[in-house]
Amino acid sequence: MKNKKQILAAFAVSAGAAFLIPSCNESGAQATADEKKTETSDGDLATPLLAQPIKGEEVAVLTDAPNVPPPITRKHRTKVVVNLEVTEVVKTMADGVDYTFWTFGGSVPGKFIRVREGDFVEFHLANHPSSKMPHNIDLHAVTGPGGGAAASFTAPGHKSEFSFTALNPGLYVYHCATAPVGMHVANGMYGLILVEPQEGLPKVDKEFYVMQGDFYTKGKYGEAGLQPFSMEKAIREDADYVVFNGSVGAMTGDNALTADVGDSVRMFVGNGGPNLVSSFHVIGEIFDRVYTEGGLGEPNKNVQTTLVPAGGSAIVEFNLETEGTFILVDHSIFRAFNKGAIGMLKAGGGDKDRNKVVYSGKTDDSVYQPEGGAIHTMPEAGKARPAAKNKEERIARGKGKYMAVCSACHQPNGVGVPAAFPPLAKADYLNNSKEKSISAVVHGLAGEVVVNGQKYNSIMPKLGLSDEDVANVLTYVYSQWGNNGSEVTPDEVKAVRAKNVAAPDGGH
Ligand SMILES: [Cu+2]
Q1: What does the DSSP 8-state code read for residue 112?
Q2: Which of 1, 326, 376, 458 is 20 to 30 A from 22 (CA-CA)?
Q3: CA 98 to ligand 1 center in whole angstroms
Q4: How many angstroms does the Cα of residue 11 sit away from the middle of ligand 1?
Q5: Whole-number mean pLDDT of the chain?
Q6: At what angle do helices 434-443 and 490-498 cross, to 10 degrees?
Q7: Which run of H or of E encompasses 49?
């Protein structure tokens, strides 16, 4: 905050020292990040990274937002074991509004992971048995195909392991990359992993973890109850909720972030998307330094608003020079006031006179309260594309649907996953009854089923496909992998749909 201090000092002189300005040579807290860099450096940085020995082993400390694991003081490479568990949980999206979030570690955003440049990371991904979906993880900090996605594909009740070396320092997003990828990300499957540079990050007083995400629900903003995911709105990028740290109000009121006047603050800011780019701004502060896009090169200085891409990050740093409530927003401002993208950082203490010199006015939080519901969207006119003309067209269209909707569980080649998802390839269940197969897709399927002599006792969620889509996808399935080649028509689907079978509602 050198600039501001110089300006303050000049002001004091020009004002004939009419104001009593306390000394600005505060010790640790006020030193700029740059000044501190040398303290944490060590002498061995000249050795190439991969030539440095890996010493010892530790289990990563993982934290939920807004908390960040402690800084790494280690001066050598080590093996870091990361244990992360995926769970699908119903949590609060806003007052009276619940949502089934898919999480890395129980909340949105996922656990914060902190390692050091050069660390050998042994990653253990578990998928809780109660999950309905398989999941995986793509860490942008990984150098390697898919960022770990294929290696970590994990069915419910299973766990996977893979490892990587953290080659590049920086702040990286991780997310689920299981098809349909957009849906997994939209349900909250993202978090941040910080790879600290070898020389460490400069010390600060407070570090926070803030991550934005956009959500798409059947009901409009604020509509009460358990809200299912809306694929149509997600595709249109028409978000109902844009929030920090997984829910409206996660960082306001009693949940506000707190710090003291004089503190140096660092925020690790991520954006999970799936769709929207954040214009991240803290009302009443100027970022002294921004490590744009999470890269740890030379920071940009004196920044008002920084862009945080979907699937990207930024590190912002500032000193708290005066008391009051500072409001975190996405400055695409309707998102802040009408969709939830608001947080608060409350700063207390400090010298009253000095605080007044920095800012004399009164603060008023009330103006920042959300203004209520979003504008209604008009019901969409149903302009579906014309139905498939023949069996070939049905199969071609069905293939796309299969890959987007079914392949995540039944696998792209239809073989399923042992003990979790039954096969569709050469499946007796499928080939013996069109009606039962249609019913599974239209109504969902729960309880014990036997496919090719193997028992499965799991849940296939209701998928919300149209009659035309169900006809196409099943005709495709019947045409593949040694199945009996049946064609399924929309009329047949309509007939089965009319039989109102009680079946599970997967909530999506
Ligand atoms: Cu997932």
Answers
A1: B
A2: 326
A3: 19
A4: 55
A5: 86
A6: 70
A7: none
Per DSSP (E only), the strands in 129-263 are: 138-139, 158-165, 170-175, 190-196, 206-215, 225-227, 241-244, 257-260
Parallel/antiparallel/unpaired status of strands 77-94 and 287-291: unpaired
Could you tell me which residues come within 8 angstroms of residue 77 by beta carbon, excluding any fewer than 6 positions away? 49, 52, 53, 54, 55, 116, 118, 119, 120
Q: pLDDT tens digit string along 435-467? A: 999 999 998 888 889 999 999 988 787 777 899
Question: For residues 91 and 113, is the Cβ–Cβ distance under 8 A?
Answer: no
- Determine the Cα–Cα distance for residues 105 and 127; give it in Å rounded to an integer: 10
Using the mean position of ligand 1's atoms as its centre, give its distance from the Cα of residue 388 in Å: 31
Global pTM reads: 0.69
Alpha carbon of 414 to ligand 1 centroid (Å): 19
pLDDT per residue as tens digits for the range 310-341? 999 999 999 999 988 999 999 999 999 999 99
Give distance in angstroms: CA of 45 to centre of ligand 1: 38
User: 3-class DSSP state for residue 280?
Assistant: strand
For the packed helices 434-443 and 467-479, what is the interaxial angle rounded to 10 degrees? Answer: 130
Residues linked to residue 354 through DSSP beta bridges, in sequence order? none
Task: Count CB-CB contacts under 10 A for residue 398.
Answer: 27
Distance CA 129, CA 88 (A): 10
Distance 475 CA to ligand 1 centre (A): 27
Q: If you measure from the C-alpha of residue 102 to the centroid of ligand 1, how many angstroms do you get, rounded to a whole number?
A: 7
Q: How far does the centroid of ligand 1 lie from the alpha carbon of residue 133, in Å?
A: 7
Our measurement of the distance from residue 47's CA atom to the centroid of its chain's CA atoms, rounded to an integer in Å, reads 36
β-pair partners for 210: 269
